[in-house]
């Protein structure tokens, strides 16, 4: 899964596309952000920046 940006913040009401192969975690990430799923282990950061 890839989210490309030249900055480390997503502004309020800004849309950022998540692109990746089938099974790469796009839906799971969306569910985590929306609070529909809870992480039970693993990391919630990208490039050492917290994302959730």
Structure write-up:
Strands 1-2 form a two-stranded antiparallel ribbon. It is globular. The mean pLDDT is 77. The chain is built from 1 helix and 2 strands; from the N terminus they run αββ. The chain has 52 residues and is α+β, with helices and mostly antiparallel strands. Strand 1 (45-46) and strand 2 (49-50) form a beta hairpin.
Q: Please provide the ordered H/E string of secondary-structure elements.
A: HEE
Strand content: 5-15%
Strand order of the largest sheet: 1-2
Q: What's the Cα radius of gyration?
A: 11 Å
Topology:
Elements: H1 26-34, E1 45-46, E2 49-50
Antiparallel strand pairs: 1-2
Give descriptors for this structure:
52 residues; 2 strands; two-stranded antiparallel sheet; alpha+beta; globular
